[in-house]
Specification:
single chain; 385 residues; mainly alpha; 2 domains; globular
């Protein structure tokens, strides 16, 4: 909305009000993405600080708290965990989603990329909200069936992929593949189908990986912030033709507005982390983790960098792989030996280190460090080509 204020001086000048146009010339600052990016980050942070106590109090009043033991506490053996998480309000992702949507609408210039991103946030947040609702009302950690979540995520990924594939000016986002450390684009027969598959996997995989990482206070949101910072840089470059040409990355017209969206995510994420750091006053729940993870996948697709997401989100990849390896090995050994065996003490990976005696805060801090290293590696792909 604020972007359109920058058009007011020109409109006044064109309609014979030059004096008023000069007086309001300061409004032109709203046309700059850098200014609106900073404004979005600050606005989202302040909104979260203001809304946080109100939303937490509302969740407590509605008794949307986790009264069952989480997976780690149920398994036992976490001697380093001092505080139980029972009774902590969940569904805090509502705060992130509300602030993200409001801030984006205030500071960004509307285009198709924003529409797709905000639609993804709303759809996945609704899916996560329903899952959290089932968990909290039934006090059952299982929630809705994983197949239901997968179907909705796949449907969203395929919708976005097909929309871009058949778009008159955006089809290259699906029809060509861009890989890190290589300055060209990969085009071969059937690449559209491959691109469609990559799009769906990026959105589904990212959504579920962030969801799996959301098991310790501040872990998922902190790692999400690190990845989002990487994409603030990538979206800005992708939307700037001169910089994109210089760094030999695909120029995507309109992608610059995703920089404002990412800034709103960072502001909202930092504001949420204020209340989610150890000991957490609120959990984001699936409402937040599915939405944030999924929209990271959407942004990666929209700027032609889904494989960079794999690098930048290395912590999420490790968390998801630990679950796949643990589950696959357990089933394999149970069929072969009659007894399931484990690779990790517990999966996802953060619980493995808790089992080894690390304090929760140690696991979170060390995963942050890993996340920063993965982020640096992702940013290095801009020059190492």
């Amino acid at each position: 909305m604020f972007y359109y204020l920058s058009q007011v001086p020109q409109w006044l000048a064109d309609n014979g009000y030059a004096g008023y146009a000069d007086w309001l010339s300061f409004l032109r600052v709203f046309q700059y993405i850098t200014f609106r990016t900073a404004g979005a980050a600050v606005t989202a942070l302040l909104l979260c600080w203001w809304l946080g106590p109100k939303i937490i109090a509302l969740l407590k009043r509605l008794k949307f708290g986790q009264e069952y033991a989480d997976k780690a506490e149920e398994a036992g053996g976490l001697g380093a965990r001092v505080l139980s998480k029972k009774g902590t309000p969940s569904m805090g992702g509502v705060m992130i989603v509300l602030v993200l949507d409001m801030t984006t609408l205030l500071w960004a210039r509307w285009n198709e990329f924003l529409a797709l991103s905000l639609m993804s946030v709303v759809v996945l947040a609704a899916l996560g909200f329903y899952d959290d609702w089932v968990k909290l009302t039934r006090q059952d950690k299982a929630g809705i069936q994983s197949k239901v979540k997968l179907v909705v995520q796949l449907a969203l990924g395929l919708f976005i992929g097909l929309y871009l594939w058949h778009h008159p000016t955006k089809s290259d986002l699906i029809g060509k593949l861009v890989v890190p450390f290589y300055s060209g684009e990969i085009v071969f027969a059937g690449v559209g189908l491959v691109g469609l598959l990559v799009t769906a996997l990026a959105i589904v995989g990212s959504s579920n990986a962030v969801n799996l990482t959301d098991g310790l206070d501040g872990l998922a949101i902190g790692c999400t912030l690190i990845v989002t910072f990487v994409f603030i840089i990538f979206t800005y470059i992708a939307g700037n033709k001169i910089m994109a040409d210089y760094l030999r990355v695909p120029y995507v017209e309109g992608a610059g507005e995703l920089t404002v969206f990412c800034a709103a995510m960072i502001g909202a994420g930092l504001g949420f982390l204020w209340y989610n750091c150890h000991p957490a006053q609120v959990f984001m729940g699936d409402t937040g983790s599915l939405a944030l993870g999924g929209v990271l996948g959407v942004i990666a697709v929209l700027i032609h960098q889904p494989f960079v997401l794999v690098i930048a989100g290395g912590v999420f990849v490790l968390e998801a792989l630990s679950v796949l390896i643990q589950t696959g090995w357990f089933k394999h050994t149970r069929r072969r030996h009659g007894e399931g065996r484990r690779v990790f003490l517990m999966a996802p990976l953060h619980h493995h280190f808790e089992k080894k005696g690390w304090y929760e805060s140690q696991v979170v801090a060390r995963f942050y460090i890993l996340g920063i290293l993965f982020a640096v590696l992702a940013l290095s792909t801009l020059k190492l080509r």
